[in-house]
Write a structure and sequence with these properties.
Layout: H1 7-37, H2 57-66, H3 68-76, H4 81-100, H5 104-127, H6 133-157, H7 162-186, H8 198-220, H9 229-258, H10 269-274
Helix pairs in contact: 1-8, 3-5, 4-5, 4-6, 5-6, 5-8, 6-7, 7-9, 8-9
Length: 286
């Protein structure tokens, strides 16, 4: 098999990589300068159990600052939060197809766009006073669907290899992390303990997808189905950190529940009335 690199393709990979890095690095340098001058402040660090992140306040504040023009544009438009939420699902679908078909550079850009839209819908809901239970439910449901599509796309691309199992492990543990929080909140425990949050997972994968074409094509040539070691490595990292996060969140939630009221006390009044004749079950036994 001829594995000679073709100059136009090498140049294209390098151009995309430089553009991707510059798009985020240049504003980050400006952001650091504004911080140093005291023109802006970092968001407060979250306490244990309230959402520790792999990327801390410095990076969170930077991304929200970089997104501020998008926020203003969305706020001045007729868009509603649910419109943006549905758009997030559409972008995730195209992202999954891109990953599954090996168009990882395109997938990296789409993944960042989709993650950014997920921030915009929440901002719009708060800024326009349109926060509703239905909107929150739709947003959470779409987030889970998007995660399944993205990591399912990874499983499709690596089908028949050990990396397919790793991709499925990331998918399962990401769902476990989210479910543990949702179920904990239903029982009266609020918090999102654990290092690897959803935004962190998407960030790690998005960066890996962007770097994969340049390094993958240089290492393997322009073969029909590159292994893309950078993406594979990021999936392995995500599998480990997501598993640790799921375990940490489960244990943290169980510890919070040990000293809590019975399960019935955390249920709505109608549900408690339906269980009046049942023996009391302590949360500690879950």
């Amino acid at each position: 098999m001829n594995r000679v690199l073709t100059p136009p393709s090498v140049a294209g990979d390098l151009t995309y990589l430089i553009g991707f890095v510059a798009f985020f690095a240049v504003p980050f340098i400006v952001y650091l300068g504004l911080l140093w001058r005291g023109s802006i402040n970092l968001p407060p660090a979250k306490q244990k159990g309230a959402g520790r992140r792999l990327f801390g306040p410095l990076f969170i504040g930077y991304y929200y600052w970089m997104m501020s023009p998008v926020f203003r544009l969305a706020l001045s438009s007729e868009l509603k939060p649910n419109h943006v939420t549905v758009a997030t699902l559409a972008v995730a679908t195209v992202t999954a197809v891109s990953i599954g078909s090996g168009h990882v550079a395109l997938a990296s850009a789409l993944l960042i766009v989709g993650g950014s839209l997920d921030i915009v819908d929440g901002y719009l809901a708060r800024a326009k006073g349109m926060t509703t239970l239905g909107g929150a439910f739709l947003d959470s449901t779409v987030d889970r669907t998007c995660d399944g599509l993205v990591f399912g796309g990874c499983a499709v691309y690596y089908a028949g290899t050990p990396m397919m199992i790793v991709s499925l492990a990331v998918l399962i543990t990401s769902f476990t992390v989210s479910y543990a929080r949702a179920r904990g909140e239903a029982l009266g425990v609020f918090g999102s303990e654990g290092l690897m949050q959803r935004a962190d997972r998407l960030t790690v994968l998005g960066i890996a997808l962007a770097f994969s074409p340049f390094f993958g094509h240089r290492a393997e040539g322009f073969v029909a189905h590159p292994f893309y070691a950078v993406t594979a490595g990021s999936l392995c990292l995500l599998a480990v950190l997501s598993t640790v996060t799921a375990f940490t969140r489960i244990m943290w939630t169980l510890n919070q529940l040990k000293a809590s009221l019975p399960v019935e006390a955390a249920l709505p009044a109608s549900a408690r009335r339906a269980q009046d004749e049942r023996p009391v079950t302590r949360v500690v036994g879950l």
